[in-house]
Each structure stands twice: as structure tokens, then as C-alpha cells.
Amino acid sequence: MTDLASGTITIKKDVVAGVFIAAFAIGFGAIAWNYSFGNVSQMGPGFFPLILSAVLGCLGLAVAVRGIFSSAEQMTFVAPIRLLFVLASPLLFGVLVRPAGFLLAVTATAFVGTLAAPGMRILTRLIVSGVLAVLATAVFIWGLGLPLAAFGRWFTL
Amino acid sequence: MDLVTNLMFGLQTALSVDNLFYCFLGCLLGTLIGVLPGVGPTATIALLLPLTFGLDASTSLIMLAGIYYGAQYGGSTTAILVNLPGEAASAVTAIDGYEMARKGHAGIALATAALSSFIAGTIATVVVAAFAMPLGEMALKFGPPEYFALIVFGLILSVTLANGQLIKAIAMIVLGLLFGIVGADVYTGLERFTFGVPDLYDGISFVAFATGLYGLSEILRNLEPSDAPSHSVRRISRLMPSLADIKRMIMPALRGTGLGSILGVLPGGGATLSSFASYALEKKLSKGPVRFGEGAMEGVAGPEAANNAGAQTSFIPMLTLGIPGNGVMAMMVGALMIQGIQPGPSVMTNNPALFWGLIASMWIGNLMLLILNLPLVGLWVKLLSTPYNMMFPAILVFSAIGVYSINMSLIDISLLSGFGILGYILFKLDCEPAPLLLGFILGPMLEDNLRRSLIFSRGDWSALVSSPISVTLLGMAALALIVVSTPGVRRIRAATFAEAED
């Protein structure tokens, strides 16, 4: 049974794992190909990564091949929408901290974070983010003296 | 200087007001996260790394170490009272500990765990002090080929002793090595895998890598749909064990300490392996009326002693050789590097206050933990009702601030999210994050020592096996791989780790 939205999928885990690993090997290998390889007594910058990529590729292949003979199993994973909220939350901090300032950036980060949790009232979410923002500002800006402004340039007009 | 003088010197450092305070803070935090399921010591240390910027190097390590061994105490509390091991290392404690609690001996079980941990912590402190010196002195004579062999040995052994499929774990090491060498090549200045991004010139930010891999992916894991049954907390009866109880626990505790001290030093060892191995040992040794799985005190005393001893002795290779054996030690190496200290044998000679202060603080920390845990146990149990929905937004905020504050870089924040999803995908595919982290830390060292060895030998590969030390280390690594791959050993290895799941 495969149902992406609710978070279950049936796959041969090791096949996916092997291909995933091999993909990294190809990525790193393709880039390292352009670096000078040098020779054994004077290794170039490409020597070590290229060898590692080759080894990684073989390992990935071995995992995948072994996986073909295993049986598919059902796997549960986090709902994609929650995943997006969790990943977006820190990014929001990075984007907002300069223009909006620390306080608002933390509020936004925490609020988007709470969106990943099911069944919370909107007011609870707002309170949690507000409290976190004030606490974090007190600890990091006023307490530890992190060189960031509590209020960004949006407030200096 | 002999052992006693050194320990006294360490005590002086550890007993300074600042260090006492941060040691306490570390132990408190450790207990806290040990109690709370879903928050591990590796993630916590990653989160707190940026905060240690402003601290003195020894103070910061003393605090971070407190988190690690403090988590071993806290984890056992919930294992016993709620059958919910807060830490992987306490999983075996839950088997007999919870059974004891169900029979109305919760207090005794808690006291057994705390006292065994304290005994182990005390002995392990001396073990660390005694073994660190000769090992460090030996390491000072290491040249590039020996270091190359040592790193290979450490990496290979760390996966043979840890849980999980061997071939995937090795793949994770190699992937970690590749991530580790991103950035400017020291020999030519060529930027490797940076895509022209200046923020990556010095390599991928360790804090972003570790926080994403452990902190963020842990959140994703906890947000999965689950139907975990709610647990009921057992009442705590009298805490003081009787003389007969103490007699019963002392031998398992001492055996656990011994086993944990040995296994902790090995790469890949540390707390978790030690506790599992100790449970298996006590089960084998038991004769007579003791029934394991039905509330045997020995099944609490042994593993609890072992995990605490293992947690402490795993500092030995990190402190003396600069080679981390598990994820938490990789964090410690990161903490040292943030402070501008290159981990390795020179730490002992150049920063003796840090070295001996850290060791002495372990004993002080264990004493604090004994006081923190036994009388205050009720308080910790109340914390269990903290809803995770309140906790994880805070973790997200901390991660973002921590990662951003180091270089004030948006790239680092993007890496945090990137490694968060990578860590989660790898977890779902049964690939362990610890070898990835170890590879990441050791990647640049491995390449540098390999290149230097071959430059000195003018391209002669046999230089790598020219000294008895490097031959032995590489031979042992190969042997470990072969032994673990044999079907018989593979079964034992799987059984040791499966013990808790029965």
C-alpha cells in the first residue's frame, strides 16, 4: 500500500538505499573528475575524492544488489507537509533575521515550526512562538550579547 | 608527575566556581534530556556547541561531558519508572528495572541504578586518568603512516562494534569522508565541491552538519504518525536499599564497570554497547533463584554501571589520540576545534588544565548526579508530561540561532535544513548517522596523513605498513572486518543488540 499523503509506502529498502548511496558517489565522482589527479608521490586534489567516490559507488551497488533479493516492506514516514514546515522553519530565521530583526525572526521560526504539529489551536501556536521569541531574545541578545539586532531595518524607518 | 598529583591538579581546575557551575549545568541538562524521550545527548551537544564560543575551553568541555554522562543517569529513571528508555543505553535497564517497579520495588531499582552508576563513574575516572597518559605519550611518536593506520582502525572498528548493517555503515563512513573534505585543498588551494560558494571555502560547518543530522532529523522522526501506547508511571516506594541489596548489586556493578571501561575505549563502543554486553554477561553468570526479565536487580546494576563507565572511558581515545570513537566524541572534537585546539596527544602537554580538569570534573559530576537524581526523582518524572509539541519548536529555534550565529551565514542555515532531510532519509533507509559524522570529522585528517605518508616515501605504498604499529593497527582492522562478516559472529552481534527488543 502506498499512500504518500498519510505517510506510508511499500518499498525494497535496500534497493533504494543502494541507489541513493550510488547517486552521491556519482555526484562527488563527476565533480572530482575535473580536479587534477596527480600521482601517488604527489597526490593532486582529485586523487582522494575520486578513490572515495569509486569505493562508495561499489558499496552502493552492493547494497542495492543485495536488496533486490529481499522482500518489500511497508514503511511509515512523516507527512510531507510537516516535513516542509520543519525544514522551512530554520530557513525563515536566516532570511528574516537581518531585515526584520531577531525577535520577529524567532517568532516566525517557532510559529512555522508549530505548524508541523497537529491539533494545536492557533492561539496556542501564537503564544508558544511569542514566549519562545521573548525568551530567546533575552538569553541570546541581552544575556549572551549575540551581535544581532532585536529589531531589524524594517523598524528603523 | 604521577597519577595522584595530576588528579589533584585537575581537581583544582574542576573546583573553580565557573567550572563547578557549568559542570552542574551540564549534569542538569543531561539528566533532563535523558529523561525526555526523543531528545538525545548527541543532538543536545550539537545544539549547545555554538553557545560554548564564549566559554573557556576547559569549562565548555566540562559542561558538554556532563551532558553525556548525565544523560546516562536520566535515561535510567524513565526506563525504570515508565518502561520508556530515554536513551538507547538504558534500553536494557528497562527490562528488569521496570519489572522491579511493577512489583513495587521502584525505589530500590532507582537506587540500584544510581549507586551502580556512581561506583562505575568513580572507578572509570581513575581508569581514564591512568590510561590516558601512556596512550598519549605513545601517540606523540606517531608519524603520518601510523596516524593513517590509526584512523582507518578507528573508523573500521567503530562500525564493526556498533549496531546496524556493516556494509551500509562503511558506505556512511565513506560518504562522511567526502563531505569532510569539501572546501579548499590544503596543498593546492583548489576549492573542492564548493560550487564557488565562498561560505564553503573553510569546509562545511560542523555545527550545521551535526545539528541537521541529529537535531532536525530527530524532530522529523518524532513527528511520524505513531500509535505509541501511553505509559503509566510507577509509584516510588522506599529508596534506601538494604545491606543485603547492596551486597547483591556490588559484584554486577563491578563487573559492569570493568566491561564498560574496556568497551568504552574501543571505537564504536561507549555507553550503549557496554550496557548491552553487561546485561548479556550477567545473564550468563547468573545461577540460582535470580530470574532475568522478571525484576532481577543484577540486570539493573550491571548495565547501569557499564553504560556510565563506557561513557567516561570513551573519552580516552578522543583526548589522547584525537580520534573520536562515537558520535558524542565527534561533537567533543568539534567543541575543541571551535576553541582553536587541535585534538590529539598535544592537548595533554599544552592544555594540562583542560585535560586533567575534565577528568576530575567527571567524578565531581557523578557526585552531583547522585544528589540530583535520587532525592529529586519525582521532579524528573513530572517532566515526562511535557508535550513534545511545545518542545520541538524550541529545538528548531535553538538550531537556527546556533547554526546562524557561528558565521552569520544563510548558506549554513540552508545546510542545516539540507542535512536534516538527508539524516532523515538515511535513518529511514536504516543507515546510521554516527559513522557519517565520524567520517566527516576524520576526512581531512585521513587525506592529509595519507598524502604526507606518500610524499615522504616518494610514492611507495609500502610506507603505510612500514612500522610495527601501523601493521598491527591495519591488521586488526582487517581482522575485525573478517570476523564480523563470519556468519556465527554476525548472529551473536545481532543477538546482543536485539536483547532489549525481546
UniProtKB/TrEMBL annotation, chain A:
Domain of life assignment: Bacteria
Species of origin reads Sinorhizobium medicae
Q: What is this protein called?
A: Tripartite tricarboxylate transporter TctB family protein
Cite the Pfam families for this sequence: TctB
| Transmembrane segments annotated in the record for this chain | 15-35, 47-65, 77-96, 126-151
List the InterPro entries. Answer: DUF1468
Which keywords does this Swiss-Prot/TrEMBL entry list? Membrane, Transmembrane, Transmembrane helix
Q: Where is the DUF1468 domain?
A: 16-148
For whether the record's keyword set contains Membrane, the answer is yes
